[in-house]
Amino acid sequence: MPLVVGDKKIEKVEIVDDNPKAREAMAWHIVDAKLEAIKAPGPLGRLPAFVSLSLKSADAAVCDHKLGLIGKYAEFDGAQAVAELYSRGFPAVLCTNFAKSDIDTIRLYRRKIPSLIRTDDVDPDGLVEGFVKCVKEIKGDFVPSRKPWRTLIRVEELLEDVKPLTLNVVLPGWSSNERVRIPLDIFPSQFRQQIMADTRFHAMVNLGAEDPNELFFDEFEF
Amino acid sequence: MSNARFRFSANILKRLGEELNPSPDQSILELVKNSYDADAGTCTIELVNADRPGGTLHIKDDGDGMNVDDIVNGWLVLGKSTKTQNQRTRLGRIRAGSKGLGRLAALRMGKVVTLLTRPRKALKDQYRLRIDWTEFDNVDLVDEVKLSIGHAIGNGGKQGTDILIEDLRTGLSRADVQRLARALVLLADPFGDDPRAFRPVLHVPEFQDLEQLVQSRYFNDAEYHLNVRVDKKGKAKASVVDFLGKTLYSADHSELSADGRSYSCPPAEFDLWAFILNKPTFQTRSSSIKEVRTWLQSFGGVHLYENGLRVSPYGNPGNDWLEMNLARVKSPEERPSTNNSIGRVSVGDSEHQLIQKTDRSGFIETDAFLEVQRFAKDGLAWMAKKRMDEAERRRTVERTEAPSQAERAKEVVKDAIDKVTGKSKEAVKLAFDRYDRAKAIEIKVLRKEIQLYRTLSTAGITAGTFAHESAGNPLKVITHAIKTVARRGRKGLGKKYENLIGEPVNMIMKSTDALKVLGNVTMSLLDHEKRRNAKVDIHMTIHQVIKMFEPFLLEREVVVTTKFASGSPFLRGSEAAVEAIVTNLLNNSLIWLEQNHSTERAILIRTKISENIITIRVADNGPGIKDISKNDVWLPGQTTRPNGTGLGLTIVRDTVKDLGGFVEAIENSEMGGAEIVIELPIIGA
Known about the structure:
The complex is a heterodimer. Chain A folds into two domains: 3-141, Rossmann fold, CATH 3.40.50.2300; 146-221, CATH 2.40.50. In chain A, the strands form three sheets. Chain A has a five-stranded parallel beta sheet, with helices on both faces. A five-stranded antiparallel beta sheet of chain A has the order 10-9-8-11-12. Chain A has helices at 20-32, 47-57, 78-87, 100-109, 124-138, 189-192, and strands at 3-5, 8-10, 12-16, 36-39, 60-64, 92-96, 116-118, 149-159, 166-171, 175-183, 200-205, 217-221. By secondary structure, chain A is α/β, with parallel strands linked by helices. By secondary structure, chain B is of the alpha+beta class. Chain B folds into four domains: 11-210, 2-Layer Sandwich (Heat Shock Protein 90), CATH 3.30.565; 217-391, no CATH class; 424-523; 528-681, Heat Shock Protein 90 (2-Layer Sandwich). Chain B is built from 18 helices and 21 strands. In chain B, helix 2 (24-37) runs parallel beside helix 6 (174-187), helix 14 runs antiparallel to helix 15 and helix 17 (575-593) runs antiparallel to helix 18 (648-658). Chain B is elongated, with a radius of gyration of 39 Å. The termini of chain B are far apart.
């Protein structure tokens, strides 16, 4: 029985994970959600090729983040894939353990990742919820924790020993005493050389997020 | 049919003049560039009471001057791209003047402008034009104000042009004058050696100081000089020479351009002089570090010259158009920054491929400009790589040579002892032999310690990799699978589920969670952010370590109790250091507690603060320190446990020492077992 959200119908869900056993295990959740599981066997090649194939063969996708650990499964990671699919109006959910080392990479694409489920929390209901949230956001219906607001941001420090280069920022409009890590690559290239401690700028940020890892940054103004 | 034409409101002068003017120094610079285009050798700028409204600016050059036609069809025409723009001047200069908008901005700085000019070809003629801008305030259209050019027979004066801007609308601030002085000093490539070069002069004290400073020319004291050139075909080559002029490395195009692409930009040359601003380096130099530092503070950075004239803002303070500082942060070892280097990129742009923005705030980022940037950045990246390779080679050689150097030094001492005469010779010889034996033992211990550290580092790295791998793959699959078993079991078996498989399923889930915690602990210990120096809250760090150990403590039925002093004592150091102390002490206690089979296993952590010292006591009710001296427990490799590394307490000792503290062991505390007492200096509580 397809999942219907407004005029969007989701029947086939593509599972993207470089571990075949994990694809199999994820399929059990999808099937229990009364959806059809399509296990993407790989190699998936580069992102554009993968996206165009997904758009044709499925109605939604669930992606693991690290896709390059086993063989030559994909030349991109899950966060990139979910963000690109979202841009094309295709609902996708990112499932990851959210290791600390992945936070910065995921942050780069977080604006276009409405649904991120921790591996431990994956179940049929959670997946369905994730797809519904994604479809609604694509149509402009944001949940409060994802709604972007224009806010002032101050650079606290550049983390010189972190590669790729990362900085700690403070968002007084969100929490004036908590530092948030963001990778330098999140800024458009023309702004990067202006970034130093005490630089202030504006950006669109989802100030309703409770967890700092959920914050996204977009539309920078210097 | 009626004829019609566009006409311009007098307000347009204000729009184009004042509103396009980025800053007074940039506007005045446009008049100076006009002097350059007129083949002037010098151009003098005088400021009379210019720090306040009503003051005067006087710009005077010895260029080719103008006749009536030049004034009417050139100087007074705004916004026209002259056909002669691509033609070189009499002296072969490529014209730098813009379409007249900058000139307008400068001329409108005052209320009245007077132009006096004597053409080179007719020195007896002198032309005079006076513009009173207030006349434009009282008319609707620009062409309603008639300007007239007066002619006088000169008195044999020299060729050139004088511009007097009177009754300034606003005064030039000290910062404006400093910026102007710096811009003028740098305008015509002061790094070059051409005595015929254009030399603008500003008559203010700041200028003389700066000019003197720029002429100091400390280039010979640079550690190395990078030169990269790109020719008309877009092919580049580079070299790096040291301060003695010896070529260190050189490269051709294929080595510089990562993908072999030609650079689609005008021919250009990039010179960079990089300095190592430390005492040992400057011992062999003719200048002092302070002199060079002051010079670099004023002129450091990479300036961009188009056809011999500098284009702002490239190389201005805060402008890092080649992202040198960013690259240095990413790779600090061998990268120069704008603070310790000076350079120029000279572009010979006879076809005007680079286009300046109308407001003179640099070049439009066309492909040609981006290619100039790419060429220079590739040069910097190539040099950094070469220097990194060399540094690595140097380290390897140092490692290999160190022992033989020690051997040579030993021979020198022995020779010296042989030359000692009299009774003291034997005593000196004996003392040296004793020293030599002690040194040999110390080296042996150190080698053993290093080997242990290496082994444990490898174990740590491998444990981290496995922890990451297990979380990503087997544990993930087990989690998904067992949740599916539970879900489907409940659905399929209904009430029978709990009796049949509920308990084993729960056990698998709990054990999986415990395994995840083990992995997380390993990864948490390897978190690089904890190794950064910052304010470390000692109580909080101890709590975090205990929390991290919770699953082990539960499993082993060990109770950890804390009795902390009030307050939040903190020190400046790395969280990893404090964590290493607490983790190793807990690990040790857990090991000692394995031998406690009778009573409840307990660890007590207490803190006490007195003045600027925190005392941390970690005690347990294990067997205490036995079979080893309490002084030897700190030595590397000393362990009473089979397969123990004997490094845990060594790490504690070394870390406490690094933090400026003191540590001691008590064989049997009031808890019964061993107690480790640590004192650390704190900066607050």
